[in-house]
Write a structure and sequence with these properties.
The structure holds two protein chains of two kinds.
Chain A: E1 2-11, H1 16-26, E2 31-38, E3 42-49, H2 52-61, E4 66-76, H3 82-92, E5 97-105, E6 108-115, H4 118-127
Antiparallel strand pairs in A: 1-3, 1-4, 2-3, 4-6, 5-6
Chain B: H1 9-12, H2 16-34, H3 38-47, H4 68-73, E1 87-92, E2 102-106, H5 107-123, E3 131-134, H6 142-154, E4 157-159, H7 166-176, E5 180-183, H8 185-197, H9 202-205, E6 210-214, H10 220-230, E7 233-240, E8 245-251, E9 258-260, E10 265-270, E11 284-290, E12 301-307, E13 309-310, E14 322-323, E15 328-329, E16 334-336, E17 339-341, H11 343-350, E18 356-367, E19 370-379, H12 388-406, E20 411-415, E21 422-423, E22 426-427, E23 430-433
Parallel strand pairs in B: 3-4, 3-5, 5-6, 6-7, 18-23, 19-20
Antiparallel strand pairs in B: 1-2, 7-8, 8-9, 9-14, 10-11, 11-12, 12-15, 13-14, 16-17, 18-19, 21-22
Helix pairs in contact in B: 5-6, 7-8, 8-10, 11-12
The chains are: A alpha+beta, B alpha/beta.
Amino acid sequence: MTVHQLSIFLENRSGTLVKVLKLLKDQGIQLIASTIADTAEYGICRIICSEPVRAFDILRDAGVAVSLCEVFALELDDEPGRAADAIGIFAAEGLSIAYLYSFLLNGKGVLIFRTDNADKARDVIKRNTLSFIPEKDLSKLL
Amino acid sequence: MSYGEYYNPEIETLSRSGIGALQAERLRATVRHCMNSPFYAKRFKECGLTPDDIKSPADITKIPFTTKQDLRDTYPFGIASVPLDKCVRLHSSSGTTGNPTVVLHSARDLDNWSTAVARCLWMVGCRPEDVFQNTSGYGMFTGGLGFQYGAEKLGMLTVPAGAGNTLRQIKFFTDLRTTVVHAIPSYAARIFEVMQQQGIDPRRDTALRILAIGAEPHSADTRKRIEDMLGVKAYNSFGMSEMCGPGVAFECKEQNGMHIWEDYYIVEIVDPVTLEPVPDGEVGELVLTTINREAMPLLRYRTRDLTRILPGECPCGRKHKRLDRMKGRSDDMIILRGVNIFPIQIETVLMGYEELASDYLITLETLDDNDFMTVDVELREGINVDDYNRLLKLEKDIVRRLHDEILITPKVRLVPKGSLPVSEGKAVRVKDLRKQY
């Protein structure tokens, strides 16, 4: 139901993102999806990658401010309206989304998100028999 | 109406030998009076000093120094030389590290303080016809009530406008025909900026002519710039709450050094390391002894301000010595927008957060003529950085608690651990990039 995601705290300075990506590259870690949320003073870079636990250790040991977290990952059919349906269910249950991003993997849409209430989200996914990704390391599905 | 040039002609033009004689007498009386202070009685006993040892102002070196720490240690009333029922006013320093410093005044002290401020304002041309607007914060900050009482004593219509609300300040300038303003230099510049936005030309639309500026370090260039902006003469003011507040020293119309009133204070400039006196003209730490104070005289108080005595006589006719503008501090105190701040205060707040690591950087800079403080703080390793709202809340909470502690609102920036500069193995804590410091 959840997958591993790296969340990286970045200063708004040139070169900080490159440093992180290079560390991952040098260790053969492959990116599957990434997104950056920016604020005036810093950015939070969120990455789904191969071997997330090893990637976390690499970054942490290099002094990068990184967290390894679990985020919900729903699998959607690759056709119009599926994201609206899924998010509509959460909205109807009164769950709000902190952040969300999506990508295609093996012909399926993947919706990654974090909510303000993980237990309730789990319950909603079960009750509505929404299709989710069972594997914490997405690269194993590649 | 025509007035004389001096507010207290006899005292202001007293000869050097006259000042010396007055100081000898007042110093002796002060030391005798200090025997009533539990703090000084004990200290005199420890060093075997008696009032009879003080025969001339030069004997002052027999007296031990008093420090800010002494004021904290005797908080709140332990250094006073009169019983509390003789005291009518209390002021406290802006710093809140450990115990604050408390300064007590008797009714006579307030009267003397008002006279000193009135004398300063008269010296730069203020007269009873003037309208005086004070943009200082009132309350514990002595720039408020200190100028209020002095300006009233001189006989001016005195407007206690208080700090901030620049639009209202400007409305009062134009409506009340304010002629004299007291402001810290950065605020004077801010007033001009807002006047420009409002289409107000200070020369055309106001009657402003005199500005008293002080409470934060500024250069001769800054003063000139402010004078040009507002079309006024700006005079440097020096004071500190421990000595009473404003009125300790003030520039005359020559604008070349601040006359320190030697019927109130004995001035020494010492080497901050050896504590030996330095000759006139050389920079050292300013040490002041109050000789005209009842409730809480302070002997050889180490102000931590670095300055020098300007050698030579002033053409204005006053024989009281002149202090050069302040050159900095012999400790790490920061003066920002008139507020005294010690880095340790900021550090203490930051160390209260388990989300933060131990390194931080205080940056002081000038933006659009306003001075700002930014505090960069490192996040501790291992904290959850995925939750943006939590980081935002943390940042806001730090800002609020810093404001409670240092009374100004800094900008707080969270940075990753290891990203702050380190020089020679020692963390750099304060970076001062302010214009013309």
